[in-house]
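Folding Problem: From Residues to Backbone Shape
Fields: amino acid sequence; protein backbone structure tokens
RECORD BEGINS BELOW THIS LINE
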Amino acid sequence: MPSFRLELEILDVRPGHAPPEVLATLLGQLRASGHHLDGHDLDVVAGTPRLYVRFVVPDSNDAEEDAEAFIAADTARKAVDAVAVPGRLWVLRRSKGAWLPARCHHPSPLGDHVRYDDG
């Protein structure tokens, strides 16, 4: 099964919510959408918290797998928006031992808030 990683910046926690809720919400949404999670982590990059979640999608073809990964990542980002202010989102695909940006097969299943590069 193809392995993907989403990276999501967290700009702030919304009033009435605690920081641990942010990761729990993200993981809960991915599980609820039927994705198997391989791992998760939290890091601070240039002063901004960033969540990392590794998950898999069912085998099909590259375009469908990438589209499903983008949709799963966007759905999780929208769920996080209830408890925190999400920032940039990256969707990466595991390929030959490296994490590479997943390809956006046009038309994009998402909007402009998703980064398709590592910048």
About this structure: Residues 11 and 47 are 10 Å apart (CA to CA). The two ends are 27 Å apart (CA to CA).
